Automatic annotation (TrEMBL):
<dbReference type="InterPro" id="IPR054383">
    <property type="entry name" value="PspAB-like"/>
</dbReference>
<protein>
    <submittedName>
        <fullName>Uncharacterized protein</fullName>
    </submittedName>
</protein>
<dbReference type="Pfam" id="PF22742">
    <property type="entry name" value="PspAB"/>
</dbReference>
């Protein structure tokens, strides 16, 4: 960063650190102890849609990579596109196997990044639920290297109180996004 950048208040963006995803199992233990929320076994990666044979080949490689685990069901990996035109890869694991789910999310992010599709990566999320039916996701913002909780309610509303409570509980386990205006809603995200 140059002297002029300092004077003008410019900062460099935070480099993504995909290894932060491996903090999710520790956060899950903390969440279970403090709030009763447990992993759902579903997680997803969101990226801007890309057309072309190179991306089609990468998509097939990601599916093959995740389905290489012989203990997985054949339908445990699925691609979809949301109403906003973003692509999602959903991975399903046993709810008590969050470490493997995080490994899946990390592998997909790493494969996309390593193939030059890093700029298309938006976020990854892991779902959590409570026995009373409440649910939320911990969302990892790829370009910021931070997490935030997203707790949707019916009618595209959010449970802000739950989001703030989760933030307080996992603040020691995960790097939480400090700018609340960046806690974007991910309505209808696979994995919620």
């Amino acid at each position: 960063m140059g002297f002029l950048d300092i004077l003008l208040g410019r900062t460099r963006p935070t480099a993504p650190d995909l290894d932060r995803l491996f903090g999710l199992p520790s956060a899950a233990v903390t969440l279970r102890a403090a709030t009763g929320f447990t992993p759902t076994g579903r997680g997803s990666v969101c990226f801007s849609s890309v057309e072309g044979s190179a991306f089609a080949g990468m998509r097939q490689d990601m599916t093959d990579l995740l389905n290489a685990d012989t203990e997985r069901a054949a339908d445990s990996v699925e691609f979809s596109r949301d109403a906003y035109g973003y692509s999602w890869l959903l991975s399903r694991r046993a709810p008590d196997d969050l470490a493997s789910l995080v490994g899946d999310l990390h592998a997909v992010n790493t494969a996309l990044e390593g193939s030059g599709f890093g700029p298309q990566l938006l976020c990854s999320l892991a779902g959590f639920e409570h026995p009373d039916g409440q649910s939320f996701a911990l969302v990892y913002l790829y370009k910021r290297g931070t997490f935030y909780p997203f707790a949707p309610l019916a009618g595209e509303k959010r449970d802000n109180a739950l989001e703030l409570r989760v933030r307080a509980v996992v603040a020691d386990d995960l790097r939480i996004e400090g700018d609340l205006s960046r806690w974007f809603p991910v309505w209808g995200a696979p994995g919620l």
